[in-house]
Amino acid sequence: MALPEYFEFQCRTKIKCGMDVIDEIGAEARLLGGARAVIVTDKVVRGLGFVDRMARSLAHEGVDVVHVFDDVPVDSDVNVCQRAHGIAREKGADITIAHGGGSALDTAKGMNILLSEGGDLVEDHQGAGLLTRPLKPLIAVPTTAGTGSEVTFAAVIKDPAENIKLSFYSPYLSPDTAILDPAVTQKMPPGLTAATGLDALTHCIECTVSTMASPITSALAFGAIRDIAKHLRRAVADGDDMEARGHMLVAACTAGLAFANALCGIVHGIAHSVGAISHVPHGVANAILLPWCMEWNLDHALEQYADIALAMGASPRHDARATALEGIALVRALCADIGLPQTLSQAGVQKADLAHISDITLGDGSVVTNPRPVEDEAHVLEILEKAF
User: Fold this and answer.
1) Model confidence pLDDT, tens digit, residues 121-131
2) Which residue from 365, 8, 11 is spatially nearest to 156, judged by alpha carbons?
3) Which of the two ends of the chain, N or C, has the fewest CB atoms closer than 10 A to its terminal CB?
4) Residues 132-147: pLDDT tens digits?
5) What is the reported pTM?
């Protein structure tokens, strides 16, 4: 890629990766000055036993667990963040530990905004660049290999009153420490492994063609694409393949570092809307939409898509377009191989909702950095009808 005239890159998060590194969380909390921790998770994840291990590690370092908030739903919303904040404030928590998938991590981010700054989450903090100082310490322990939320500057949280997904964006939202322990992802079922893996791949591909891409974000993204192409099928087929699990966890984190800086595009813009209206899991929506959006963008980022294809394992063809098209075919093949739905209708989307999905997609910040300008609802509807 040509060197941009100007770019920025930030990474605020300390990353610790390794088997059983979760047992070091107490020392990390103490380094951050924490004394009273609240753990944000869901009931399924809590039942896996890692919360108890973290509590023992924290206690060993003199950090009290004042509350375990395990009411995070699959698709969290601002009301859950408000409720978690109320409990954390009442308990005098001074450090937050987020443990789970993207919903738990984003809930913890929203809660931490309120714990640090107060106010109303939507009225005072929704949007980009509104936080002006560091928040209270936050440690993220992801149980899925997909969202990258353990290192990103963003949280996507549903507003049930408006039935839309809201974006909160600031470098101060990124966790202070990310704990990447492959053992924590071992019990992730195949369907969730597949969907979250495609979320990570979508991050990589979208940030590579983003109008804010840089040599640093592209280098990170291409490395993650190679890892995902090599290891995702293995991780889906055998949850006990800890080598594949570890590679996917690192790839998702690497993708997070990349798209936190370069941002995403139309795939995420539409997927957010599909999730809000039709309740399709985010990774599933991305998997369905990704190849169609790549085709729609093709002439506006041809060289980048050809490079993506090579990273996916394509053979160089006689020209960039042919190579890029093979890359799109490889994405479709990967989605099929790991058992993800191929169309929006298979995922439960109703044709009558496509116009509404198109309408709210135009207000999603992700479309701003798409390589092809998204000018009106007709552009979005064109993609939706092909993917339906």
Assistant:
1) 999 999 999 99
2) 365
3) N
4) 999 999 999 999 999 9
5) 0.94
CATH 2.40.160.100 holds for 14-185:
no
Contact between 203 and 38 (Cβ < 8 Å): no
Helix/strand/coil (H/E/C) assignment for every residue in 324-344: HHHHHHHHHHHHHHCCCCCCC
Query: Exposed, middle or buried by CB within 10 Å (0-12, 13-18, 19+), for 11?
Result: middle
What pLDDT is attached to residue 163? Answer: 86
What 3-state class would DSSP assign to 66? strand
Contact 262, 7 (CB under 8 A): no
- Write out the H or E segment, with its range, that includes residue 127: strand 127-128
Spell out a b/e string for 176-210, using b for 16 or more CB atoms within 10 Å of the CB, else e.
Answer: bbbbbbbbbbebbeeebbbbbbbbbbbbbbbbbbb
Domain 14-185 matches domain 190-387 at the CATH topology level: no
Q: Where are the domains of the chain?
A: 14-185, 190-387
Half-sphere exposure of 136 (CA within 13 A, CB side): 26
| Tokens, residue 226 | 């190679």
pLDDT one-digit tens code per residue, 269-322: 999 999 999 999 999 999 999 999 999 999 999 999 999 999 999 999 889 999
DSSP string, 190-217: HHHHHHHHHHHHHHHHHHHHSTT--HHH
Handedness of CA 213, 18, 153, 364 (dihedral sign): positive
Q: And the tokens for 111?
A: 């809660």
Written out in words, the top-level CATH class of the domain with range 190-387 is mainly alpha
